[in-house]
């Protein structure tokens, strides 16, 4: 169970991966991260540019000049950046639980706002609502994305405890 927000270092990891594909400038990186997230998340300039400058300082990326776009600040990954990326790939491989906790945590709060009498949220006309229909739509989108990327969705009958045991996962406690 996570005690805070999204997994630390996520944006930095994505920036390194994107720079490994090709040299990029900040706005291009923001748009690509937005695309990767299905349009649901876009970090701010205030988070991406400091990462690029930090990478430059550490020697993981370097600024390059492009004759066709002299006013843009393009960054290119260095060999040291590729070494760091290899480490970040390994580190990120151990964060699937953190991602699942963020997704499930937000979903549980969404449903609590819809069903728990302690919360007196007033749904507004023309806005998203905390209710059963919107919850079903969110769930449907996750299933559609699953089927697009992995194939037919099959229900998993395991309880959380059974799933953890079947995959030899550590307990939440």
Gist of the model:
The chain is mainly alpha-helical and 173 residues long.
What does this structure look like?
This protein has a three-stranded antiparallel β-sheet. The mean pLDDT is 90. Helix 1 packs across helix 4 (79-93) and helix 2 (26-36) packs across helix 3. The chain has 173 residues and is mainly alpha-helical. The radius of gyration is 20 Å and the shape is globular. The protein has helices spanning 10-21, 26-36, 45-58, 79-93, 96-115, 132-150, 160-166, and strands spanning 24-25, 61-64, 74-77. It is built from seven helices and three strands, in the order αβααββαααα.
Chart the SSEs and their pairings.
Elements: H1 10-21, E1 24-25, H2 26-36, H3 45-58, E2 61-64, E3 74-77, H4 79-93, H5 96-115, H6 132-150, H7 160-166
Helix pairs in contact: 1-4, 2-3
- How far the N terminus sits from the C terminus, by CA atoms, comes to 8 Å
According to DSSP, the number of beta strands is 3
| 3D shape | globular
Mean pLDDT: 90
- Considering DSSP H and I runs of 4 or more, what fraction of the residues is helical? 55-70%
Taking pLDDT < 50 over at least 5 consecutive residues as the criterion, the unreliable ranges are none
Radius of gyration: 20 Å
User: Helix/strand-derived class?
Assistant: mainly alpha
- Helix-strand pattern: HEHHEEHHHH
Query: DSSP strand (E) fraction?
Result: 5-15%
Biggest sheet strand line-up:
1-3-2
Q: Largest sheet, if any? A: 3 strands, antiparallel
In DSSP terms (H or I, runs of 4 or more residues), the helix count works out at 7
């Amino acid at each position: 169970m996570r005690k805070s927000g999204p997994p630390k270092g996520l944006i930095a990891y994505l920036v390194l991966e994107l720079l490994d594909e090709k040299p990029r400038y900040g706005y291009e990186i923001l748009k690509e991260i937005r695309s990767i997230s299905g349009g649901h998340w876009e970090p701010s300039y205030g988070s991406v540019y400091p990462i690029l400058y930090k990478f430059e300082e550490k020697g993981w990326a370097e600024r390059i000049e492009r004759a066709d776009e002299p006013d843009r600040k393009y960054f290119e990954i260095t060999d040291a950046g590729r070494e760091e990326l290899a480490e970040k790939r390994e580190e990120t491989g151990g964060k699937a639980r953190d991602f699942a906790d963020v997704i499930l945590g937000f979903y549980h709060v969404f449903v609590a706002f819809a069903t728990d009498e302690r919360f007196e949220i007033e749904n507004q006309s023309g806005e998203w609502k905390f209710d059963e229909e919107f919850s079903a739509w969110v769930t449907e989108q996750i299933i559609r994305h699953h089927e697009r990327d992995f194939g037919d969705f099959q229900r998993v009958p395991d309880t959380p405890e059974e799933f953890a045991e079947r995959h030899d996962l550590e307990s939440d406690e």
